[in-house]
Every structure is written in C-alpha cells, then in structure tokens.
Design a protein that fits this description.
It is a single chain. This protein is of the alpha+beta class and 76 residues long. Helices cover 18% and strands 8% of the residues. The chain has one helix spanning 45-58; strands spanning 35-37, 40-42. Strands 1-2 form a two-stranded antiparallel sheet. A hairpin with a 2-residue loop joins strand 1 (35-37) and strand 2.
Length: 76
C-alpha cells in the first residue's frame, strides 16, 4: 500500500505534517499544528520565529490573528 502524501507541510522548512518532530497541539495529531500563520502551518518554535522575522523584515506581518487551519468551518 502506498503512503498517502501529506497535504500539509511547514511553510519554512518543508517538513511534512506527520513527520517526527512536528509540533502538534496537546500531542494529538487530530488537534492540528501547534504553530501557524495566515500563510500556512509551521513545524516548530524555530520555524515560527524564522517566519515571523522574515515577514517583519519584508513588512508583511498580519495585523490580525490567523484562523486555525485545522478547525472545520461551521455551516450556517
């Protein structure tokens, strides 16, 4: 059986979401990534900081918190 490809990867280093070492919320894969931005998920505090520094230098920091990419949208 072929391993399914990960739809999510760290936007800084490219580490796949299911890889060992990827920081997940409360240690449960179904809770999603522990770090994310409006541009995607991040695998670690180090990548989160690197992403923030790059965006700060480029002047592209978001002014509002990014929505959790793993939360399902409620239906109205």
């Amino acid at each position: 059986m072929l391993a399914r490809p990960d739809a999510y990867r760290c936007i800084e280093c490219g580490l796949p979401y299911r890889a060992t070492g990827f920081a997940i919320t409360k240690g449960k894969m179904e809770n999603g990534a522990a770090y994310w931005s409006d541009r995607g998920i991040l695998c670690s505090p180090q990548c989160s900081l690197a992403h923030h520094c790059k965006r700060e230098k480029a002047g592209t920091l978001s002014q509002v918190p990014a929505p959790d990419p793993f939360q399902t949208r409620s239906r109205h």
